[in-house]
Fold this sequence. Notes:
Helix 2 packs across helix 3. By secondary structure, this protein is an alpha/beta fold. Helices cover 38% and strands 25% of the residues. It has 2 domains: 4-79 and 157-264, P-loop containing nucleotide triphosphate hydrolases (Rossmann fold), CATH 3.40.50; 90-154, no CATH class. It has helices spanning 48-56, 95-105, 110-123, 139-152, 169-186, 197-203, 237-264, and strands at residues 4-17, 20-33, 37-41, 63-68, 71-72, 80-83, 157-161, 189-193, 206-210, 217-222.
Amino acid sequence: MTEPILAVEQVTKRFTRNGKTTEVLDQVSFTVGRGEFVALVGPSGCGKTTLLRIIAGLVSPSSGVVRVNGRIVFGPGPDRAMVFQQDSLFPWRTVLQNVRFGLEVRGVSRRQADEACLRLLERVGLKGFAGYYPHEISGGMRQRVNLARALAVDPEILLMDEPFAALDAQTRELMQMELLRIWSDARKTVIFVTHQIDEACYLADRVLVMASRPGRIVEDIPIRIPRPRPLQVKRTGEFGRYVDHIWSLLEKEVRQAALTLRAED
Length: 265
């Protein structure tokens, strides 16, 4: 692996509500190399999104630290950008204005920002849609705008929380291909949360499998399928073996998570 850009070191997270403390993450540790694409999979409630928010600096760990380029994360920073499950675009802004927002906040001139953002819109396949409003484009296109907005601030690490979950199956597969194309071009470090095992195996260099709550890393699985990866690779025996192995790890955890939720009802 290349020199780590991200180090998660024994991160534990507890939430207390109405006098009851719940441990969501338990001493999670892993590193990510510069330019790597890493996917996080695990049962619902295992803390995947919480972990992503801790890396983003939106939530503080109860114990442990996150380091980016060797520096401890104490809050959000320009070296990280997050793409959420919902596109969260401003409905009163055009596509270009949405992508430009982060650069405006940083004080970049309108001309420079527009030039950079128009290049990004072309990169994500939205050339010609700069003047459209979010309600005038499809869900897949809105998520491309969301991705372009995150890339516009030129982060070192892109944090993606189930960005394709709300899309239909066909659009989701097309967006997976588009994401790999954009990632190959931009070479950002990506941490990608998903419930879909095949999506994780298709996109990632490594898949981190998480246990049911409290979340922890069960196994770190390198995906040794050569790139570029056409969609047809999902129908190969090698791909199927990765999916089957990860599901065998997750099946026990999913059952345990269901039992935990039932006990709490």
